[in-house]
Amino acid sequence: MVTAKILVVDDDSLIRDIIGMVLEDQGYVVRKAGNGAEALIIHQGEPIDLIVSDMNMPEVDGLELIKKLRAAGELVPVIILTGNSEIATAIAALKSGASDYLLKDENIQDTITFAVDKVLDKHRLQEQNRQLMADLARKNELLEKDKLLAQKVQKNILPRDLHFPAFAVGTFYQPSDKIGGDFFDAWEANGKINLVIADVSGHSTSSALIMAVCKGIIRSIGLAETDPRKIVTAANRMLCEVLTDSGMFLSLVYGIIDRENDEIQLLSAGHNPVFLYDGQGCQAIDSMGPVLGWDPDDVWEIASYPFAGGAGLFMYTDGLTEAKDSDGEEFGEERLQQLIGADLLPEQLVAKVFATAQDFCQGVFPDDLTMFAISKK
């Protein structure tokens, strides 16, 4: 361990020598100065671990010494030596950045070592804390850079400008942080439009990673299979292997719109209700089975509904309905359902819902928020 170097500052040479001798006997390296001006010169020329300084000295006194050190950004600890009549001045020194003060009396030979040890230990802890905070700041900076990169990747993963002949589409995606666990997707194959919206549990980087994996798995299966139940069952088996022992899972809604038959098939796996609507009203579609990623042998029901001209589907994640107002009341499914109708195009509907929810919760969405609406013209 490196021996601490202490600078003793006092215009009384006897006091300097006594304190220096006591500290050297304890193994410290001691330098001496007759006033604050000399102390500043010595400190600028070599590293000093602690300064023991008298208050009243010519040229630069103890209080001025502390102020000059702190003004220069120097964090070296300073112990002030003071008499009984100078307590108020010592307190002023503490407010200016002194670490401690010590009475210059007949017991100083016994108290100086204790004071020096205590202040040095405290300073080492402060230095360690500063280093830890600096390391944490660097790690946070790197994490933010990683999140920004992940955010760009996620934006590229999610589909943009979706267009299907004879249909209108509106989408919205807002992660609670820079990255999120929600996703949506849509594609057309063999005259059928595949739709999916999903919510991966959690809000961590892991959720964002799993989001990308899940989306890839579901899209790849969906391109080869046309039965929503078979698609979700196969995806669940693969995801159970991916998510094993992680405690993570995902809810989703998978839909297939059949152009030829004006019909939509829906499968909801542990997801919040989605809404089918037309000029006659709005119907909530509840979950038809468990979430994905827990049990590879899970099964789901499937339901078919008419989807002719004027019909629409509104899907979302629970970051919308669980948003709360200042009184802690949730936005809720009932309030959401009242906003949904065939009088608006999907893009307009999504914008209206978001604006209403944003006003309700004053723009505070603790969870990821995703919406997907599609209607047949």
Descriptive notes:
This protein has 377 residues and is of the alpha/beta class. It has two domains: 127 residues, Rossmann fold (3-Layer(aba) Sandwich), CATH 3.40.50.2300; 219 residues, Phosphatase 2c, domain 1 (4-Layer Sandwich). Helices cover 41% and strands 24% of the residues. It has ten helices and 15 strands. The strands form three sheets. The chain has a five-stranded parallel sheet, with helices on both faces. The protein has a five-stranded antiparallel sheet with strand order 6-15-14-11-12. A five-stranded antiparallel sheet has the order 7-8-9-10-13, with helices on one face. Helix 2 packs parallel to helix 3, helix 3 packs parallel to helix 4 and helix 6 packs antiparallel against helix 7. The longest helix is centred in the middle third of the chain and has 50 residues. The mean pLDDT is 89.
Number of structural domains: 2
Query: Between the first and last Cα atoms, what is the distance in angstroms?
Result: 79 Å
The backbone outline, from C-alpha atoms, is elongated
**Strand order, sheet with most strands:** 2-1-3-4-5
User: What is the count of helical runs?
Assistant: 10
- Which series of helices and strands comes N to C? EHEHEHEHEHEEEHHEEEEEEHHHE
User: Mind telling me the CATH superfamily name of the largest domain?
Assistant: PPM-type phosphatase domain
CATH class of the largest domain: Alpha Beta
Low-confidence segments, given as residue ranges, are none
Quaternary state of the chains: single chain
Please summarize the sheet with the most strands.
Answer: 5 strands, parallel
Fold-level CATH name of the largest domain: Phosphatase 2c, domain 1
Helix percent band: 40-55%
Beta-strand residue fraction:
15-25%
